[in-house]
Structures are given as structure tokens and as C-alpha cells.
Amino acid sequence: MLRDFLHLHRAEILSRSRRRVAARNSPPATEFELNDGLPAFLDQLGEALKRVTARETSDHTAITKSAGDHGHFLFDAGLTVGQVVHDYGDLCQVITLLAGERGTAFDTAEFQTLNLCLDDAIAGAVTEYAHQRERLNAHEGTERLGVLAHEMRNLLNAAVISFASIKAGLVAPGGSTGAIHERSLLGLQTLIDRSLADVRLDAGISSLDRVSISSLLEEVEIGASMLARTRGVDFALTTVERGVIVEADRQILSAAIVNLLQNAFKFTRPGSKVRLTASTTADRVLLDVVDECGGLPSGKIEDLLRPFEQRGGDRSGLGLGLAICFKAVKAMAGELRIRDVPSVGCVFTIDLPRQAPSMPSPRD
Predict the structure, then answer these.
(1) Quick one: which H or E segment has residue 86?
(2) What angle in degrees, to the nearest 10, is found between the helix axes of 60-76 and 81-101?
């Protein structure tokens, strides 16, 4: 049994792992990593294996949380995310080689379990690192450009490290580390789109175009569905007929809608639903983003529209989304409203003037 093998050969596994890590050029090893970090990694993998049931299935959430707890301890001690991820991989390779030398045969399910534990452990460690960096940035009071640079670097680091693990064959693309990689890339895309929209708003919108709401929402739906999937949230869209037109900057209006959706996905509980609903009156177009976040925190709703203001326990992101959205909608002669549904969620409404439908071209 794999767990018994780890216990029986613990000293040999740690000795070989220390030699392997010490010989690594990048990232360089530290004394704490060799003497305290590697035993902690091996203990964490042992804990993960204990969570396997008789049917050889694992509790992903529990394994990832366990890895995150170990990651918190190790990062506090000064280890980098690169050291953490590489050390997990080195341990796995030492275990595999030693088992071959000892002629110990593990069945396919046990190796799959080991790889699953490794995958979830790396994902938990990378996620914990990103959270710690975000918390650090939140307390540093960094200027806006500095915060943006830190946030982009965090997402990029997570993407690079997770891709390196996938490329090296340590984990499968479809596992937890692959999900971290996807979330990091989507986060970078959202951050860049939001920043570009903010820059364009500061420069001023020179002209507005006639924009079909149904066409715009078709484009938004593609990215929104991907974001919802990474958050474990159900997403539903209700659109309008193609003749519904508004005057807007297409890119900025799209960014405003995406900002509201991203905010809704962030705070809505996994397994719940976020809805984007378009409706009309005789002279208005209403775009409602409805989430199931449990309701807004106490305090003035208007406070949420201030730059760098964040709500809830998830501190990821810059807290700029709602402020940019408010500014974008106002620049297009519209209004952004927020309505709290206590103990259920909240509704963010973009209210824009409706334009007359395009007249058909006369026949020759």
C-alpha cells in the first residue's frame, strides 16, 4: 500500500529529496526548505492519502485546504511559490524511483491517487500564495499603478507556475492545477480589459455608436460562461430581440457588463446562479445582473462605487470594477443602480436610453 510505503521509507525518501533539491539551480534551496519544508510536504501528501475512501475517491476540497494550510506555514517561513511547487514534484519523482528500485508494485488506482493528491496540493499551494500576495497588497496601501502591477504579476506567476507543472507532466491539464492556470489567464484578461476601459474613460468618449444589445450580449455570454465555470456558478442569459438599440461605446459598455458579472461570480456561492437579464420599456433598456451572494454588507450602497472599495471576505481583485462601471454608464447618459435583496443577493442594473430602430434602406 502506498501510504505504508511512504511510512516505511520516510527517512530514505527525505534523504534523497534533500539531495535532489539541494542540487537544483533554480529556484535555489534554503536550509529551512531542506530541514523543515520537505518533511512538511511529505506529511501533507500522507494526510491527503489518508482521505482516500474505500472506493479510491478523494475529497478535493479537503486535500486542497490541507495543502493551503501547509502552504501558509511555508510561505510565512519565506519559501517562494516556485520552491513549494518544485518540492512537491521532486518528492513525487523520488517516491516513484525508489518504489521501482525496491521492486514495490503499486496498482494503477494508487498511482492515480498519488497524482491526484499532488495535483490538489499544488493547486492549494499556488492559491494560498496568490491569496497571501493579495492580502499583502491590500494592506500596503500601494498607489494605483503599483497595485495593478502587483495584481498582474500575481496572476502571471500563478499561470507560469501552473503551466510549468503541466508541461513537466507532473499533473494532468484537466485537474486542479489546470483550473488554476485557466483562472489565472481569465483573471489577466479581465484585469487588462478593465484597465483599458478605465484609461479610455479617463481620456473621454469622443463618440457613441448604435449598438445592438442582443449582438453585444452574444459576445459577452462566451466569456461569462467560462468565468462562471471556473467559479462553479451557474450562469443564465435572457436577451432581447435584435431591434433593440442603444447609443454607446461598444467596448466600454461590454467592459461594464463584464465587470458586473465578474463581481457577481466572485461573491456568489458555488452551486448558486447568476443571471443577466435584458428588458425594455418604451424608452429605456435595462440590463440586470442578479446574483446570490447572500445580500450586501451593512453600510451605504454608494460606498461600493468608490475606487478600491471591496466587500466580503474574498479580497482578490483591485476593487475598481464597480467604480469603473458607474463611470462608464454615466458617460453613456445612463444610470447604474444597486438593489439589495437581504439574505438572498443583490441586483445591479444598467439603465440606458433606448434608441429608435434602424430604418430599412429604400429599394432602388
Answers:
(1) helix 81-101
(2) 120
* Predicted local distance difference test score (pLDDT) of residue 135: 64
Those residues whose C-beta lies under 8 Å from the C-beta of residue 149, and which sit 6 or more positions away, are none
The per-residue pLDDT for range 12-36, each reduced to its tens digit, is: 999 998 998 888 776 677 787 788 8
DSSP 364: -
For 267-288, b/e burial (b = at least 16 CB within 10 A) is bbeeebbbbbbbeeeeeebbbb
SS3 assignment, position 275: strand
**Mean pLDDT score of the chain:** 76
Outline where DSSP puts E strands in 72-217.
Answer: 209-212
For residue 197, give the C-alpha cell: 476601459
Q: Give me the numbers of helices (H) and strands (E) for the chain, helices first please.
A: 12, 7
Whether residue 133 has pLDDT greater than 70 = no
Report residue 335's pLDDT band, with 50, 70 and 90 as the boundaries: very high
Other residues' Cβ atoms within 10 Å of the Cβ of residue 323: 18
Nearest to 33 by CA among 10, 14, 46: 14
| Core vs surface per residue 192-219: b (16+ CB within 10 A) or e | ebbbebbebbeeeeeebeebbbeebbee
* pLDDT, tens only, 341-354: 988 999 999 999 99
Q: Is 211 helix (H, G, I), strand (E, B) or coil?
A: strand
- Distance, CA of 62 to CA of 278 (rounded, Å): 39
Distances from the Cα of 152 to the Cαs of 130, 134, 146, in angstroms? 11, 11, 10
- Model confidence pLDDT, tens digit, residues 46-87: 776 776 544 445 555 655 666 666 666 666 667 776 777 777
Q: What are phi and psi of 236, to 5 degrees?
A: -130, 140
Model pTM greater than 0.70? no
27 prior amide bond cis, ω within 30 = yes
